[in-house]
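Record type: monomer structure entry
Structure origin: computed from sequence
Chain ID: A
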Amino acid sequence: MKAVILAAGIGSRLSRPFPKSLSVLPYGETILGRQIRILKDLGVNEIIIVVGFKMTLIMENFPEVYYKYNPNYYITNTSKSLLCAIEDLDDDILWMNGDVVFDKAIIRKVLSIKDDSFVCVDCKSCGEEEVKYTRDDQGYINEISKEVVNAEGEAVGINMILKKDLETYAEALRKCDDNDYFEKGIEMIIQDGVKIKPVDISDYKCIEVDFEEDWVSAQASFQTRDNK
């Protein structure tokens, strides 16, 4: 298994002069540093970070991981950043957005899932900006986007594509438009018959930091290192 962290974007909605993944939590750890530590603590040692905006700041802070560069980070979205990381890989891939702050227990839970590719979800009411989902009669995801109607909850930005589904997904990402999120590729492979399981992490803390209010919430929720 390999892990991919998407940290190429400018993060314009948060208006930081540095990559927002380098925002420092109250106890002194950056969002990205927390992600890397949790992955390594749980045995995921091959970590690839996709960089773009002010990439040297990230690379200087974390020289121990691997990097892929999205040279078009300023005009592309997460579908193309993820493609940069996975198109030459042949393994199970756990990937996450670089602005997600989460409990360690979430990664411990998802690493035990072996049979299906999956998307972690939080079962709650959602606004316009959240990526939402619905399930089919078998309990698998059948819709996932910001435009989903009658959504069952939010896709939180932590996902797994198994090796058996990887090339199908990479091809879908190639077909995505430059401004598409990686969820568009997930929708494409669902239409091709790939089963994507929703994994409910509602019992844990998980916040994607898009806006200032998200950052305030993350600071209030993650006051400690979380070594459990």
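Annotation 1: Helices lie at 31-41, 55-61, 78-86, 104-110, 163-175, 182-191, 212-221.
Annotation 2: The chain has seven helices and eleven strands.
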